[in-house]
Amino acid sequence: MDPYTGEVAEFFDVTGMNWIHSDAWNSITKTLLAKEYEDAILNDFVQTICQWIIQKQKEADEIIIEGTL
User: Fold this and answer.
1) For 12, which of 2, 24, 51, 66 is 20 to 30 Å away at the CA?
2) What is the top-level taxon of the source organism (predicted)?
3) Is the pTM above the cut of 0.85?
4) Of residues 34, 33, 29, the one with CA closest to residue 53
């Protein structure tokens, strides 16, 4: 949800800002960490990004991902 307009996005915007609230990140990281990845590099990436997100949640209510496609 965009904190300024209140608009809720139904899908990830690959060309713009994606405001993702901490509650949603909890669900996202839980799902990603529960999966088993055969590719070791992918597994390391998922672990690293999820731990970064979990740490940043201590400092912020939301994390914004910018689509740059």
Assistant:
1) 51
2) Bacteria
3) no
4) 29
